[in-house]
Specification:
- By secondary structure, the chain is α+β, with helices and mostly antiparallel strands.
- The chain has one domain: Nuclear Transport Factor 2, Chain: A (Roll), CATH 3.10.450.360.
- It is 23% helix and 43% strand.
- It has four helices and eleven strands.
- Strands 1-10-9-8-7-6-5-4-3-2-11 form an eleven-stranded mixed β-sheet.
- It is globular and about 45 Å long.
Length: 193
């Protein structure tokens, strides 16, 4: 069976787009009363001595969730819950020096290979809820432990096809790419800190 070169071209082109999804995100600030009670009860002990405590409802292209953001010590935390108030993950902003050396090398190798020109915007350490008690996940995250299930989320800009695009990449604790998606400017109804 003979295939037209044009059909093969479009078939190959469609396969290239499957690896990357796009992320459209909107965050709305809400009051503590609108934040799920189950989520607040789980998180409340960690809000002791925290500053700039804010609650948000987040809607992106795939799901709705709730998020509590605050500063504790020198770290900026983001704790995300699903629509029912079940813990999804805990993230906090870090510097590249906080990532283990071998992991950082693997991340840079991947980025250099696929994005010759890129600029890092933000690095976060992510503690996802992985078949364990949500209290243990919170405890581990606030102890800043580097565990085998920890992920690193990078937001970066890169030049691709002669224009800059913002991406969000998720790497596992070994520095292997788990997820990559284009990120579009979020719509905020608040000022970010």
């Amino acid at each position: 069976m003979k295939y037209s070169p044009i059909i093969l071209f479009f078939l190959c082109l469609s396969h290239l787009g499957w690896g990357q999804q796009s992320k459209y995100e909107q965050e709305y600030r809400i009051t503590q009363e609108l934040f799920p009670q189950k989520a607040y009860a789980l998180l409340s002990e960690y809000l002791d001595r925290a500053k700039r405590i804010r609650f948000y409802k987040e809607i992106d292209s795939t799901k709705e969730s709730y998020e509590a953001k605050f500063k504790k010590g020198r770290l900026r935390y983001s704790v995300e819950f699903d629509i029912d108030g079940t813990l999804e993950d805990v993230e906090f902003i870090i510097k590249k020096d906080d990532v283990p050396e071998e992991t950082w090398h693997n991340i840079l190798t991947h980025l250099d290979t696929h994005f010759p020109k890129f600029r890092l915007r933000k690095i976060q350490q992510q503690h996802p809820l992985v078949h364990q008690d949500p209290k243990k996940t919170l405890h581990d995250a606030f102890q800043n432990l580097i565990l085998p299930h920890v992920n690193y989320e990078l937001v970066f800009s890169a030049k691709k096809e002669n224009r800059f695009q913002t991406y969000e990449a998720l790497f596992n604790s070994e520095g292997k790419l788990v997820k990559l998606q284009k990120s579009f400017p979020p719509s905020y109804d608040h000022i970010q800190y």
